Structures are given as structure tokens and as C-alpha cells.
């Protein structure tokens, strides 16, 4: 009898010790459950698909819609509840397709910042490209009549080159920049379609034997894609929500490999992994449309939340430009607008556990991505983005045609996805030691207690 009692006491002690050890070992072990599964090749393939197969994804464009369909399909395949949330956004989009001497897509930017260029409609205008020099009054050959004028920027004002082309009988005008940057041009009152293009594209069209189709269309709708997962066990549901986000649109002429194919791909990869992990709060994956035109998608998403919903959402982890290969962009910033918030603190703690502290700067005061929409709605948000230490500069091909796969760093991609995945999972996993879950009601401050230092025993109550 006595030995039986001793035996059960020993067993109890062993059990308690095991529990205590599990409690101590947990943070780093839980990180490994996430980071060991992150597949860089899978993320690279998604960036390739978005930036090369689809290409430029301007807000409201058919290409942006193609990307939203792809994202929704992937979420669905992983088993999430998926909603495509449409919202109105009026935009104009221009396309140039070279027909002769070969078929080729040429990226152009429609009109200026106050775009007033008339639209061609879905058929577009087909014509010969006629080199009209710098667009001075004497520089227009007779054959420009009924054709498309190509004018180099540099000597005339935009208004003059445009008006001269129209006077010479051109049916559309293309203005070539003197560098590879995208730009806007305001030509005054516009009565024929016009667009701008970079130097590389302009040179492709020059030469006298080029026929193109120029098309400009009006689009009206953009969309967010939202994948949701609630805790499997209702009794374990704390009632809170964490939102991971990334925008998937891009600016005109930029294929948006890093901005923001990278964040979109990381969002999809974390969705794949987090689908099968135990959680004690709801997780939402939000792929935002129309970010580049003023955070339109994320602001719409936040505007559709009830007051109670806003209070339930305790954090927004936003990934925007998470894989640049730019040499100077060696530090992963966590941009916040409310200082050292939950996102910044959990990111710092995760980076420390993963041995990535030297790569991370959190927090840094900056908006300009979708986390700002959450901040405006009273929700703690942070944007993960590689920038230059000290200057916070972005890579030189930011918003340019060179934002392509060749400038993606697989190593930085992995570091960023690891930190975001581990930080986010430290919040949503059941009984996390990093959070004191308030069960007394929503809207209470979530207190983050610092992580249990190595070697300090935390004996669970029996
Ligand atoms: N990914 C960019 C750049 C960015 C992200 C800048 C986070 C700063 C912080 C983002 O998509 C972007 O270009 N944002 C716009 C502002 C937006 C409100 C239109 C920008 O910074 O010009
Ligand atoms: Zn961006």
C-alpha cells in the first residue's frame, strides 16, 4: 500500500516535471512547428506566377482580378472559408501590344496624375508608331496623320508635345521618358488618348516598322480576398482575432515581384502552415486590393467591421516588400504608428528566439501600407518591410519595371516569413505564455508578459 502511494507520488512528480519542462521548452519549440515548414521554393513560385504569368496588377484591372482569383483558389485548396469582398474603385488602365514586327506586351502608364485622357474602348486603336523626335512643331512627319505619335521627353513641355501631335493628325500619343522610371504627364485638356512609357519600352517601338494596338479602359471594382479559420474547439476560443495581410496589387509598369508579390506569397505560405496548427483565436488572412492607390482595400475592409469586430481584432501583421535583394536593404523594419505595440513586441521576441535579432528593427514610425488602415480603425498593426539601416531607403527599382524576380532574395524571404510566422503563432496558439488572455470581455488591454528566461522554472499549478 505504502509503495503504491510512493509510486503514485513519484508518477505525479514526473508528470508535473514533464509539464514544467514542456512549458519552458515551448516558445522555441512552437516556433519550429512553423518555421520548419516554410517552403521558399513554394513562395518563389507564387511570386513568379504573380509577377511574370500575370504581371502588372493595377488596382481594379483584369490582371488584379486574375490575381484575386488565384489567391482565393489557393486559400480554398487549403480548406479555408473564403470571401471575395468587392468594393468600388474607379481606375483607368492602358495597354500597348506590339503587333509587328513581333507580338509583345509593352508596359505603359496612362495619362497623368489627374488622368483625363479619353478612352479607346476594348478594341483599342491600331496604328503605326511614328517617331516624332522631341515633339517640336517641325518634327512631325506627314505619316503621323491617322497614326500613333511617339515623342521623346526632354525639350518640349508635355502640353506642347501633346498639342503639336494632335495638330499633326495623330490619333494617340506616347511620351517616352529619358530614363527607365515610370512617370506621370499632364498634358492639359486631352481629346485624344495618351500614355507614357519608359525609355526601354520607347526604344522598342522606335524604328519605323512597328505596328501597335493601344487600348485604354475604365475599370470600376477592386477586391479583397479573405480566408478565415476559427478555433476547432469552441471551448478554447478566446474570442480574439488576428489578421495577417498583404496587398497583391501593383503600380502601373511594375510587375511587383517584391512589392508585393513577396508579401502575398508569404501570406499564402503561412496560411498553408497555420491551417493545421491548434489555435485559440480566430485567424484571418487578408489579401488586399487597391493598396497602391491609397490603401483603398484595407480601409474598405476596416470600414465594414462592426465596433465589436474591431475590438476583437488584437493585431494586424502586414507583409509588404519582404524579399528584396537590394544590397542596402538589409534590415527588416516593423513599421507601426502606435509605437511598441503587440506586433512589434512579438516580432522582437520571435527574432530573438530564432537568432535573427540583428536583422530586425521594431518598432519604426511609418505608415503607408495596409497596417495604417488598421491603426486608423483603432487596431494595433505593423508592416514588415526590408529597408536600408539608418536611411530607411527602399530599393532603387521600387515601383519600377525592374521590380522583378531577379531582385528577390530567397534568404531574406525566409527570414521575414519566419519572423512573422513565429510572432503571429506566439499570439494565436492555445495557452500561449506570451499573452494573458482576458476572458472578461472584449476591448481590454492585452498584456504581454516577457518570455520566460531560459532556466527559470515555471511550475504549473495542480
Ligand atoms: N510597399 C510600398 C511602400 C511602403 C510600405 C512604404 C510601407 C512605406 C511603408 C507601398 O505599397 C506603397 O507604395 N505605399 C505608398 C503609399 C500608399 C498610401 C499609396 C507610398 O509609400 O508611396
Ligand atoms: Zn507595397
Can you offer a commentary on this structure?
This protein has 462 residues and is α/β, with parallel strands linked by helices. It has 2 domains: 4-90 and 220-437, Zn peptidases (Aminopeptidase, 3-Layer(aba) Sandwich); 102-209, 3-Layer(bba) Sandwich (Glucose Oxidase, domain 1), CATH 3.50.30. It contains 11 helices and 16 strands. The chain has helices at 2-35, 40-54, 62-77, 158-167, 199-205, 257-274, 296-303, 307-312, 342-354, 371-376, 410-428, and strands spanning 81-100, 104-106, 109-110, 125-131, 148-152, 172-176, 194-197, 211-229, 241-247, 282-288, 313-319, 331-336, 360-365, 381-387, 435-436, 447-448. Strands 1, 2, 3, 4, 5, 6, 7, 8, 9, 10, 11, 12, 13 and 14 form a 14-stranded mixed β-sheet that branches. Strand 12, helix 9 (342-354) and strand 13 (360-365) form a beta-alpha-beta unit. The longest helix is centred in the N-terminal third of the chain and has 34 residues, at 2-35. Mean pLDDT is 89; it is low at 436-462. Zinc ion is lined by residues 247, 259-260, 291, 320-321, 369.
Summarize the structure.
This protein is α/β, with parallel strands linked by helices and 462 residues long. The chain is built from eleven helices and 16 strands. Strands 1, 2, 3, 4, 5, 6, 7, 8, 9, 10, 11, 12, 13 and 14 form a 14-stranded mixed beta sheet that branches. It has a two-stranded antiparallel sheet with strand order 15-16.
Number of domains: 2
- Tell me, what's the shape? elongated
Q: For the residues shown, what is the average pLDDT?
A: 89
How much of the sequence is in beta strands?
Answer: 15-25%
For the sheet with most strands, the description reads: 14 strands, mixed
Backbone CA Rg: 27 Å
Helix content: 25-40%
The assigned CATH architecture of the largest domain is 3-Layer(aba) Sandwich
Distance between the terminal alpha carbons, to the nearest Å? 24 Å
Bound molecules: ligand BES, zinc ion
Low-confidence stretches: 436-462
CATH T-level fold name of the largest domain:
Aminopeptidase
| DSSP summary, beta strand count | 16
Number of helices: 11
Structural class: alpha/beta
